[in-house]
TrEMBL record:
It is found in: Endoplasmic reticulum membrane; Endoplasmic reticulum-Golgi intermediate compartment membrane; Cytoplasmic vesicle, COPII-coated vesicle membrane. Pfam families: VMA21 (PF09446). One of its GO terms (biological process) is vacuolar proton-transporting V-type ATPase complex assembly. GO terms for cellular component: endoplasmic reticulum membrane; endoplasmic reticulum-Golgi intermediate compartment membrane; ER to Golgi transport vesicle membrane. This is Vacuolar ATPase assembly integral membrane protein VMA21 homolog. It is a multi-pass membrane protein. Required for the assembly of the V0 complex of the vacuolar ATPase (V-ATPase) in the endoplasmic reticulum. Its main location: endoplasmic reticulum. InterPro entries: Vma21 (IPR019013). It comes from the Eukaryota. The chain crosses the membrane at residues 12-35, 47-70. It comes from Batillaria attramentaria. Belongs to the VMA21 family.
Length: 83
């Protein structure tokens, strides 16, 4: 696998892991500790607010992925023969 393809796959795997774990973590963390624990919001409303936090986290991750994809250096690199 080429060096460029390896870097692309690493970035894709990184953002995939973020998309799987970070929204779930942010949902439960914000529900239990921020909204119910710190602000004292009732449980029925804390589900709604935690879902909003999770959606915002997903959008931030997508925005970061798009930024990284557009700023990626895609200039062709010369292939040197290795003996």
């Amino acid at each position: 696998m080429g060096e460029l393809a390896k870097g692309v796959m690493q970035k894709m795997l990184f953002f995939t892991v973020l998309m799987v774990f970070l929204p779930i973590f942010s949902y439960f963390f914000s529900k239990a500790f921020i909204f119910e624990g710190f602000f004292g919001v009732v449980q029925a409303n804390s589900y709604f607010y935690a879902a909003i936090v999770s959606i915002v986290v997903v959008h931030i991750i997508l925005g970061c992925f798009i930024y990284v994809a557009f700023t990626e250096d895609d200039t062709p690199r010369p292939q040197f023969k290795q003996d």
